[in-house]
Every structure is written in C-alpha cells, then in structure tokens.
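Anyone able to model this chain together with N-acetyl-beta-D-glucopyranosylamine?
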Amino acid sequence: MARDDMPQSDFRDAILWHLAYTLGKDPDHAQVFDWRLALSHAVRDRIVDRWMAATRATYRADAKRVYYLSMEFLIGRLLQDNIVNLQLADEAQAAVESFGLDYAGLLLDEPDAALGNGGLGRLAACFMESLATLGCPAYGYGIRYEHGLFRQSFAEGRQVEAPEDWLEQPFVWQFERPEARFTLGFGGQVATRDGRAVWEPESFVQAEAFDTPVIGWRGAWANTLRLWAGRAVDPFDLDRFNAGDFAAAAEAEALARTISRVLYPEDSTEKGKRLRLTQEYFFSAASIRDILRRFEADHADLRLLPQKVAIQLNDTHPAIAGPELVRILHDERGLPFDEAVGITRGCVNYTNHTLLPEALESWGEGLFADLLPRHLQIIDRIDEADAKAHPDRRNTARGDGKVRMGELSFILSNRVNGVSALHTGLMKTTVFADQHRIWPDRIVNQTNGVTPRRWLLGCNPRLSRLIAQTIGDGWVGDLEQLHALEPHVADAGWLDAFAAVKAANKADLCDWIAREHGVALNPQALFDVQIKRIHEYKRQHLNILEAIALWQEMRENPSADWTARVKIFGGKAAPGYFFAKDIIRLINDVAAVINADAATNEKLQILYLPNYNVTLAERLIPAADLSEQISTAGKEASGTGNMKFALNGAPTIGTLDGANVEIRELVGAENFFLFGLTAEEAEARRAVPDHAARAVAADPRLTRAVEAIRSGTFSPGEPDRYANIVENLTRADYFLVASDFADYWRAQREVDFAYANRTEWTRMAALNVARSGWFSSDRTIRGYMQDIWNAQSLLGQE
Ligand code: NBG
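re: yes, here you go
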C-alpha cells in the first residue's frame, strides 16, 4: 500500500495505513503499543467526518449550545467506548486478530485518563456521551491536567501515592489547537477611566485548547470536549539564557504550566489554595471567552445570549464564570451593569453535588482580592443589590471576610439543581433554605444517570448479548426497554442463562485477580463489592466492622451453614485525609489476618484492590453479586456507582440515601436490602448524648469487633494503631457507624439467606436489571434539556 492509497472503507487496511504513515512503523516490528495507536487512528478517522457534520449543522441551525463547565472529566479509556458507539466492535476485533494480536489486550493497553476524582467527574463524562447520543449541540470545558488522579499502591497496608502520567504517551483522541488561545490576566489593580472600571492585571498566562471529539451511540452525532492547558505568554527569555541563567530562562513557561499540571486529589473537601482558585479562574475565563467568540461570530446583539447559550456549572468550581461574564459584558462591551447581570443569569445554571459543609467552597477575600480584584468588586455589587432587593435574606455570598461560591452561584443562576430527589429536597430545607424561600422556582431536581453504552454494553458483553437475544438491541439507546425482560424472569431456562452470565463474569474476574494479584478467590462465594472514594460518610469502616464480627462468629460456630463471601474493596483516599487513610490500612490489616485463617477462609475472604479507577470499575461491576451503598443517610448526594451495579444485576444493600431511595422504589423494596436510620432519624440520633458508646454497648457483636481492633488483633504489637478509629466509633461518631451497625448486620444476614436460594437470588438480580432503565444518563440529559437549558436535539439535521 502506498501513502496515496489512504483506505476509505477497509478497516484492516486503515490500520496498516496508519501504522506506516502516521506512526512510521513496519508491521514486522510493531509492538502492541503501535498497533493500539494505529487502531485508534483508524477509529478516529471515522469520528471526524461526523464531528464536523455536527458542528456545521449547529452553525446552520443557529442552535442553542450547551456548555458544560467542569473541573473534572473522568473519561477513562476511550478506544473501546468509541468502537462500541461506532458499532465497529466485530470489525475491529476481526482486523486485530487477523494481525495475530489479542483484541482485549490491545484495548487494555490504553492509559486510563483519570481527569477526575470520583462521581462528579465520571458524571460529567457520562453526560458528554449522552449529550452526543441525543444530538444536543454541546461543549464540555475543563482542564487538560498533565497528571490525573494519583496512582495508588499499598505498602504494609498503607496507601502510597505516585504521580499519574497518562500524557507520557501520545493521546490519540485529542487535536491540539495552537491557534485557539486566550490570554488571561491575574492580580493587579482596578483603575477608573472615563468613569469606568478597568482591570489592569499584573500577570498573564495563556490557555491553549485541546479538543477531543465525543461520539454518541451509533455515531449519529459528535460534540467537543475542549480542555485548556496553561502556556506562558513569553515562553522563553533569550536574554536570560544568553546571560547563562538557563533555568530562569524557562521559568515563565514552567509557572504557566503549573496551572494545568495536576488534578487536585481532593474529593468533597476543598483546600483553600491559591493554585486551586487560579485553576478555577483559568479554565472558566478561557471558556467564557470561547463561548463569546463563537456567539459574536454570528450575532451582534448580546442580549440574545440567553437564547443561544446555556452554561452549566458542575458544582461551584467554575462559579467564577458568572462574574467573569458580567465583567466582560459590562466593563468590556459596555452594557449597563444590571443588564449584564440579567444576561448572565439567563445563561448560567448551577448543579450542587454535596451538602457536606466542608465541601462548600469559600475563599478568603484577601486571596480573592489579590488574584481577582475586579471580580471581587463585581461580586460585592451583585450581593449588595441582592441584599437590597431581599432585605430579609440571611444567606449571603459575601460576609465574614469570605466569598461563598455556593451562594454566589445561586444568585447568578437561572436554575439550580440537585442530583437525586432526596438531595434536592434537603437542599431546599437546609443549605439553600433561605434562597429557596426567596426564589421558590429556582431549585429543580435532576437525578443522576449513567451511560448504558459504557456501563452495560461495553463493560458487560455477556449480559448485553443475553439481553439482545431476549428483547433486541433497542435498549442501548432507550434503556427503559429493559422492562421487556420482566416476563422472562419467570422462565427457568432464561434465569439459568442469566445466572451463567454472572458466573462467567465472576470467573473472568477470578482469573484476572489470580494473575495480577496472586490471590485465589472462591468463585462460588457471594461477591460483595464496595468501590468508591474513601470517606467517613461512605462508611467503609462499617463494612469492615461487619466483616470482623462475621469472622468472629464464624470462628465460634464453624459448623454453621455460612454463606461464603468475598468482600472486595476499592478506592482512593485524599492524600491529606488521615482518617480515610487509617480506614484503608485497617481494611488491609483485617484482610491479612482473616485471609490467613484456615478455619474460615473458605467462607470469608477480603480483598482490597489497589488503584481503583474507571477501568477497574468496568471489571468489577459486571462480576459483583452485592452492591454496598451504605453511606450515612443525608450525606451521599446521589451516587452513580449504585446505578451501575443495579444495571449489571447486583442488588443493593443500602441506606435511604441519595439515589438509593429511587433505586429501591424502582426495583422494588423486596429486591433491595434496606437498613439504617433515615436522614431525619440520623439528625435526631446525633443529638442523643453518648449515642455511640451506647450503641456499642448495646450490641455484643459490635463490642467484640471494636475490642478486637482496640486490642491489636489486626495490628499485633501495636494496639494503638487504630486508636483514632476506635475513639471515633465510641465517642463522636458523627457518621453513626455504631448506631447503624446492628441493623446492617441484620440486613447482611438477610443477604446470606437470600443468596443461599440461588434461583430466588438470580430472580432478584435480573429484576434489578429489568427495572434500572430509568437510570440512563440519556434520561437525565433530556431532563436538563427540557427543564434547565431549553435546548433542542439536532439529530437528523447533521
Ligand atoms: C458527588 C457526590 C455523589 C454524586 C456525584 C455526582 C462531589 C462533590 N459530589 O453522591 O458525592 O453522585 O457527586 O453528582 O464529588
């Protein structure tokens, strides 16, 4: 083949062509890496035409565009996702195998792009995919971190963090746009000229765009994920270099790059760091300029902006986008201040993702004034006007020397939404009660969802095949069609096939764990999985306490008919979150002792898999029997892992928290293992003096489990190792682990009993699948399009 013979249709030829002409590799010497890149290029080619057609269609229709501003996009690997959405899987596999290569191995060679911490970032990635599937013209805006979330390993059970380096390899899916740069200012002062405020920044950096196309299901539409990288305005100082100061010559570039160097590894807690605020302004301001540039290319009247632009703030991290838009409209374009605020409010909407007080962002006004002096003035003016209009308001965006981003976002937004029914309700009665009284229509609910392309079709091919054989393949684009599985649940043959799928997925997982981690698991056991960030409110320590109590009971009563269990954990702790790191170590210590106990280890095994990420989730979820969603009620805004498990046939053991509530309503109370205090009861319990000590004393199992930790059963020679955890469990226990323990134990024994009747269990698992269709992110995005953005699909117009 020659270069001019760029193949249009034959996929195999396309791969060979890219291997030679894009990568410069001879097939005889190509490694898995080269073949993977060649395959990716061949796939990418098939995306580009559709991508451009979608962009052209949007311009032609002068359609409203949705802009999703998010500090995090936890996209994971893209090759398989793109292949699945282009429906190229069979062709790609055949081509790869014809070269004598292992297809699955090739897909796994791609680094996992971990540009996010957890649920918030993964939600943004699912949303991008659903926006494309629904043909809604949209851009995702974020930061192109050079280092994503840290890589986790364990040393003597303790979490060790290492930098992540996904960009050390070429990232095939991105297009660098050196021509699309914006210069952004920081610091300095505000001057007044001709009666108008003029911001005179002290320093400048550039934001350079990198675009990744996001293709929807069946390739019908594609949108853009635009990530910004920090660049110096003058990257190199030749005078300093010539004077022999080589390092200083490149200092400006190094400083500018720092902005997009690392993802903050904080989940739910914010560090009041200057760099963090710099990152937030950097990507928000670059995005606002890009949005205005695109709008002004075709429209002269800025008052039309709300008709053409919907901006979604994914939590408050991009909240500064609001004041930035006001600043440009007023200071730079000359619109009256109130009009600038009105236009901004017409465009901007805000999603709240947590009620944890420590996670609601606020900045000291000193730092703010130093970095963004003009924005502080604008915020003050907006907040003062708001105070005047609502003299009885209590919550303010300014005060106590702080800038409060949640309150600010609320004032500057057209719609504010929560992410599950319970969470939205609590927003109205707690953190935003004051605002809700003033603007009763502003808060709306949009319960989270997950994309079925990645979280069922892609990660669980066996189950997908069974579903397709049973009800056809319409469900991939219309997940509620899964309801059509319900009648088959009564069919013993079909249930057997369903059970065989789960068994095969479990066998695959066992093989992988044996290979990668040298641990042999009992595939007959119930696979009980808790995977998510480590946080006190998510209560991994409740889970491990139950494991300890179970082990103790098994030892005491070895001949009882115990249901065999494998407890699998996965998740990272923020590096500065010491309590969470103690929990990790405790789980590993407990695992070491219990797994070594020959008296019980056929019935109980505990495994903590390191470096939990999207790829690991895709492996574990299809093989799980039981989904652990055990947060303290009122604390988990929604959860999305909970939806993925249900959709893949793992019933939930959980509290009435976040979207668990809706999952239980939809799959049926009899197919969900409920336990624990409700959000209201939890509040009341906290007020009871000594609630923790009393709960521990009242439950002999819990007393004994806590005692084992306290006495050093799992930390021989160092009984104090978990003094903090023991102290917390028996005293403050804000997250009510002790109070919920007894009921959790009860629910777990119900699980054991239910699992022992395998036919009934399979029925329950299958009903979870059949009734989880509502949790598609397509449904969620339709809700945003209708209730928040007023945006239309352009499918069919591309
Ligand atoms: C998280 C919540 C989850 C929720 C995701 C996505 C933050 C701040 N919030 O419950 O804890 O599912 O957001 O909405 O990360």
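The two ends are 33 Å apart (CA to CA).
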